[in-house]
Amino acid sequence: xRHSIRSQTPSDHRDTPRSxxxxxxxxxxxxxxxxxxxxxxxxxxxxxxADLRNPLGELxxxxxxxxxxxxxxxxxxxxxxxxxxxxxxxxLAELVERVTAAQADVVIFDNDLAPxxxxxxxxxxxxxxxxxxxxxxxxxASRAKTREAQLQVELAQLEYTAPRLRGLWTHLERIAGAGxxxxxxxxxxxxxxxxxxxxxxxxxxxxxxxxxxxxxEIAEIDRRKQREVGSRSDQFTVSLVGYTNSGKSTLLNKxxxxxxxxxxxxxxxxxxxxxxxxxxEARSVLLSDTVGFIRDLPHGLVASFRATLEETIHADLxxxxxxxxxxxAWQQMESVDAVLENLGCAKIPQLTLLNKVDIADHSxxxxxxxxxxxxxxxxxxxxxxxxxxxxxxxxxxxEGDAVDVTVRVPHTEGKxxxxxxxxxxVRERRYLSEGVELDVRINRSQLRQLQGxxxxxxxxxxxxxxxxxxxxxxx
Length: 475
Ligand SMILES: Nc1nc2c(ncn2[C@@H]2O[C@H](COP(=O)(O)OP(=O)(O)OP(=O)(O)O)[C@@H](O)[C@H]2O)c(=O)[nH]1
Ligand SMILES: [Mg+2]
Fold this sequence. Notes:
alpha/beta; Rossmann fold; binds guanosine-5'-triphosphate
């Protein structure tokens, strides 16, 4: 069955309360043979962050990632969106013509639209109309595999579409007022037997209940995730961040021989994978790969994905992967910075990795980026170029606050030795009558934690542990 937006309303959730049924699934059942045909439209506003050479290019990539066939595009320059239709009157007529000529099923707007504009456009064009945020949410919904991701996407979808549904309800109310429950049922397709009004109230209540249920579940996942990440706080953690399709998963695979899914699609990765990354010489750190970012991420999506981004939020070092072969590398980098700021990660030390140097034919962009940022490395996750230097740099940082100390552990404290081996580089081991003496290189914070957990371990430090008064205040 192919759904239209008017045949799916939140009351569907009553039948499948724990499933991931979006409130307004823009593309309905994807198992239909023929891909949906879309006309892309956009209003180019003066402050746009779109690529001026190809303003609808990213939207086309998003549409393709959602499995939609783009059959025509139309762009209008305006200083603001028109209140009723987003476009001006003349261009609206042109859009209607193009949609008919191209036999399109859907119009996808690059701008985020108000419920009223969507309604106006749908009435004028006679097709469903969705906006950029809805498209992104739809891709997330179709890719979400874990229960965590499914709940997060559903919450973001419900919160984003709730105002639109209210718009839809107003529409239903009008029809219900004129034709009674039957008309509302015919349009709503929600099995409305009683008067439209009553169904609308039920739908409103169901959606509210579902939102609070999802919020409770997600809060529980957040807590569990925080404990999980907190328990690893004694290990140096590196997080890959970056625009979607920049090559984060490819890099994770190359560095750690993991088998993370890689694809030339937007939002190929939707969860977080953390693996051990061996830097050689008995030193290793944790490396995590997560969901990519994009400009103008739908409001609420980042908040809903907090649990997924927990590793990123608590990383000791961020590796910001930039696709230097993209003509919009600069804007992409700025969008990622904005999301990091939003997540409270702006202060985490960062290395910028200009990726895909093997196919970057405009090195001027790389030059410019390198001049504007500190700590930039040029790499290719595909060919491995520049990765030795990356390993050296990360090793240097992971060892940044390391100290060389000699510790003594009584023979009875085997567990202490096990823990020590996990986090320290052991240089020498001497067996004495009162216990084992080890010369180790270890990070200061990790040494302090071990001292707290294993008081029987004594430390002979050749240098003072705390060498700056400010650091002492932090303790
Ligand atoms: N030529 C070239 N292609 C690369 C390089 N790194 C990644 N790619 C390609 O870029 C595309 C995206 O790679 P992914 O690793 O899936 O990107 P990602 O950042 O994980 O993307 P999302 O998970 O969607 O956010 C794939 O087609 C990769 O083969 C590189 O260094 N050079
Ligand atoms: Mg990925």
